[in-house]
Specification:
The protein is an alpha/beta fold and 885 residues long. The chain is built from 28 helices and 29 strands. A 4-stranded antiparallel sheet has the order 6-5-14-16. Strands 10-11-9-12 form a 4-stranded mixed sheet, with helices on one face. α17 crosses α18 (567-589), α19 (608-629) runs parallel beside α22 (666-687) and α26 (818-844) packs antiparallel against α28 (854-882). The radius of gyration is 37 Å and the shape is elongated. Bound molecules: zinc ion (2 copies). The site of one zinc ion has 7 residues, from loops.
């Protein structure tokens, strides 16, 4: 092996940029359209084109990259399909805000010019998140990068729309929708966020038409009375039995409206009589349908009272409330006002209060689609993991309402429906029609509305693969193998992909869905701007390197548990990178005369540590494979970490030093070199999917044959490495060394001080172990003499340890000054006692517990445990010393 070496420290920034470019140059991310290999495919949850990489993206894409790299190394034709979402409302808002800086609205520009501006914006800034994903190390097949508004994907959108329409699964109807007066569009039920607000409940009297008294209704929104078309009571409410069918006069408006009976009215709420405003409340809208009530729209799209509002026309909804309350009061109609807190719906995008409004909208008749999507999960064609999410999925599917897919914005897929100016025919077509098939006229006007963004993302798993064309990619990669996404878009996205995939492809879009938790801060709180606890992924990558950051995310991802992220954790895994780096430097130093084409290494030349580390590697490989196959990401990470840090670095590298330094014979040295090289290579491969950059950097130096670790073969278990005897023997030897080291620590004996140790090995097996392991024990525990006896007699002035059936006596005569040591320990003990008392007092103080933050209390509790542990160690040492003189 030619002389090779690594720099003193790993320079992540420089290395990451270099290796990412190397992978791109070698086209390692590319998946074959068709191949003899088994296929593995993932479609990326397309980030918004306006997006900036946040912790959620970082987690999500790290997990996808781990699985893609892992399968690729296992020999799969692995596709990770990347792309972005046009994000209708979000993107339109961004560009509108830009225009607003120049005092221009989108209406000033007009539709066509505005859309041009959005495309310009997209070309300029739309790639930001893609480059951020590259910083993270994502191995997407960038040749295939898709955008939901691409020509091909847009074609898929039209195709699905037209099919659904022709089968009667898309319809247009008047419907009450959640209207955002600021964004000027309907938004779906899922996009409404509810917030509890302090409001009031006003009691208003509506006089009977015949002049004999009146009926009292209660409302939180008095301004909506302008649109009232009935008053409703419960048919079982004895107070109103003789009032049903009577007429009342709507105050201020003077409209005559009926008193109707409907069993949905609650007898307990307010007076038991409620005003019915079908245009402003979804429940009232449903009641109007049952009773064929008139629907009077009273507001325009800005939330301003329209011509149906009489003298209030032109007033904003909040302004109108005040005017109406004043006029009701003056007219003697207002009977009372009580404080009342209730949930108010807000636009998820801009936080404006939602105004329910009746307007013509397009809908997907969802029940038939939901039925198939439910059945597919019941039959196990798609697995949802963790399994607890399955029931949530079923519940939602069973209670699903028709999906309102029209949005009154400009940026998006314009609905492919044209209205004929000649005969009024509605034309629905995948290609823009030039004349009306009904009358031959050419005065055609396309529907103004665009589709909900989630309509195109629902098609993502097949539209990105070329559907409706029957492409090779589609044949190869659909259904995809796995989807990894946050649980928060199970309904927005996952459920809709299920429905659309089954509809268009007649097959599920993915075999497995893995839903991960939210990334929270270390106290378990949600990260938010207002809390100031946001951790920026790019800042972490700059500071600690992408590998340490990725490893942290993976190590924290346990199924069904929140992810508590902190900078300290990332810093901790940066040490792991350093550890690996230094282990490689050590390896390289000891391989300088090693040649892989050298003489054959016989199994007999392998030392016990060689056999042991190969056995441990084998077990780790099997556990890591099992963990990744079952998406137990944290288990995979911790398996690799434990092996590399503790078994390989802490033990093996120390144990084989004598062989490597040539203290044995040349054959044994070569065997150690070979084992070391092979174990290092396997470790790097196992680690590569989680830490791609540093493993590549090390691989290129250590292996140095011009191959990339990215396309090397993931380790498999080797029957020949299975060696439980070595494992048992090495285990006992390590236990013995640990036991001596512990005594050294407890008795405050310097590591450089050589010790005399007597080991009593009562049986054949333990005797054999100490004989084989004697030199390892002597080296690693730093002994000057090791004596083995068969009997278990107590040695005087010795500290005792136990390992299996063996007893270990560390002789302290002349090593420890018993009196001085006892004094030191007693002093130390007094200090610890004082600390312990202080912390206990603090933790028992109710005042402190009530006032301190959770973080502070947890810190105190941790301190308490540490001091308590120290206390018991000191007590054991003192106890030991009491017996000596
Ligand atoms: Zn809004
Ligand atoms: Zn026509």
């Amino acid at each position: 092996m030619a002389e090779k070496s690594l720099g003193k420290a790993y320079e992540s920034q420089e290395s990451e940029a270099r290796w990412y470019q190397y992978w791109l140059d070698h086209d390692f991310f590319r998946a074959e359209d068709s191949s003899g290999k088994p296929q593995f495919s993932i479609v990326i949850p397309p980030p918004n084109v306006t997006g900036m990489l946040h912790m959620g993206h970082a987690l999500n894409n790290t997990l996808q990259d781990v699985m893609t790299r892992y399968r690729r190394m296992q020999g799969y034709n692995a596709l990770w399909m990347p792309g972005t979402d046009h994000a209708g409302i979000a993107t339109q808002n961004v560009v509108e805000q830009e225009l607003a800086k120049d005092g221009v609205t989108r209406h000033d520009l007009g539709r066509e010019k505005f859309i041009e501006r959005v495309w310009e914006w997209k070309e300029k800034y739309g790639g930001v998140i893609i480059n951020q994903l590259k910083r993270l190390g994502c191995s997407c097949d960038w040749h295939r990068e898709a955008f939901t508004m691409d020509e091909k994907l847009s074609r898929a959108v039209r195709e699905v729309f037209v099919r659904l329409y022709n089968e009667g699964l898309i319809y247009r109807g008047d419907y009450i929708v959640n209207w955002c007066p600021r964004c000027h569009t309907a938004i779906s039920d899922l996009e409404v966020e509810y917030e509890e607000k302090e409001g009031a409940l006003w009691e208003i009297r509506y006089p009977y038409e015949d002049g004999n008294g009146g009926i009292v209704v209660a409302t939180t929104r008095p301004e909506t009375m302008l649109g009232d078309t009935a008053v409703a009571v419960n048919p079982d409410d004895k107070r109103y039995t003789d009032k049903i069918g009577k007429k009342v006069v709507l105050p201020l408006v003077n409209r005559i409206i009926p008193v109707i009976a409907d069993s949905h009215v609650s007898i307990e709420f307010g007076s038991g009589a409620v005003k019915i405003t079908p245009s402003s409340d979804p429940n009232d809208f449903a009641m109007a349908e049952r009773h064929h009530l008139e629907i009077v729209n009273i507001m325009d799209g800005n939330g301003v009272i329209n011509e149906n509002g009489g003298i209030y026309q032109g007033q904003d909804r909040y302004e109108a409330r005040q005017s109406i309350l004043r006029d009701l009061e003056n007219g003697g109609y207002l009977l009372g006002k009580k404080p009342y807190s209730h949930n108010v719906g807000q636009c998820y995008r801009c936080k404006t209060d939602i105004e329910p409004m009746v307007s013509p909208q397009w809908f997907v008749k969802i029940k038939p689609l939901a039925k198939a999507a439910t059945a597919a999960v019941i039959k196990g064609e798609t697995r949802i993991l963790p399994a607890m999410w399955e029931s949530t999925y079923f519940e939602w599917m069973n209670n699903i309402r028709d999906w309102c897919i029209s949005r009154q914005i400009w940026w998006g897929h314009r609905i492919p429906v044209w209205y004929c100016g000649g005969c009024g025919k509605e034309i629905v077509s995948t290609i823009d029609p030039v004349e009306c098939p009904g009358c031959g006229g050419s005065s055609l006007k396309q529907e103004e509305d665009v589709l909900d963004t989630w309509f195109s993302s629902a098609l993502w798993p097949f539209s990105t693969l070329g559907w409706p064309e029957k492409t090779e990619s589609l044949k190869t990669f659909y259904p995809t193998s796995l989807l990894i996404t946050g649980f928060d878009i199970l309904f927005f996205w996952v459920a809709r992909m299920m429905m659309m995939g089954l509809y268009a492809m007649n097959d599920v879009p993915f075999k497995d869905v893995y839903l991960h938790a939210l990334v929270r801060d270390e106290m378990g709180d949600k990260m938010s701007k207002s809390r100031g606890n946001i951790i920026d992924p790019l800042e972490m990558i700059d500071k600690f390197g992408a590998d340490a950051f990725r490893f942290t995310l993976v190590a924290l991802t346990a199924q069904g548990r929140d992810i508590r992220m902190s900078e300290e954790r990332i810093a901790g895994y940066k040490h792991f990178v350093n550890k690996l780096w230094n282990a490689t430097r050590f390896t390289l130093m000891n391989l300088d005369d090693y040649s892989s084409s050298g003489a054959h290494v016989s199994k007999d030349d392998e030392s016990l540590p060689d056999r042991w580390i190969k056995h441990r590697l084998n077990i780790t490989v099997s556990e890591v494979i099992k963990s990744l196959d079952e998406y137990r990401f944290n288990d995979a990470a911790s398996g690799i970490y434990q092996f590399i840090w503790h078994e390989l670095c802490d033990w093996y590298l120390e144990l084989v030093k004598p062989e490597l330094y040539g203290k044995g014979n040349p054959e044994k040295r070569r065997a150690a070199q070979l084992t070391l090289l092979n174990v290092m290579m396997s470790s790097l491969k196992m680690l590569h999917p989680i830490m791609p950059f540093v493993t590549e950097e090390i691989w290129q130096t250590l292996v140095g044959d011009g191959t990339s670790i990215m396309v090397s073969e993931f380790p498999t278990t080797q029957d020949t490495s299975h060696d439980p005897v070595a494992d048992r023997q090495m285990g006992a030897i390590m236990e013995t060394i640990t036991s001596i080291r512990n005594i050294r620590g407890e008795m405050n004996i310097a590591p450089s001080k050589k010790l005399k140790v007597v080991i009593s090995a009562p049986d054949e097996e333990s005797r054999a172990i100490v004989e084989i392991g004697g030199s390892y024990i002597t080296n690693l525990a730093n002994l000057e003499a090791l004596t083995i006896t068969g009997n278990g007699e107590e040695s005087k002035n010795a500290a005792t340890g136990v390992a299996g059936s063996m007893r270990i006596y560390v002789l302290l005569e002349g090593v420890v000054d018993f009196a001085a040591e006892r004094k030191r320990l007693e002093k130390e003990m007094a200090r610890v006692d004082k600390d312990l008392a202080a912390i206990s007092k603090k933790l028992a103080n109710q005042d402190f517990l009530a006032k301190a933050s959770r973080a502070v209390v947890e810190k105190e509790e941790k301190k308490f445990r540490e001091v308590r542990d120290k206390h018991s160690v000191l007590a054991a040492a003192l106890n030991r010393l009491q017996k000596m003189d």
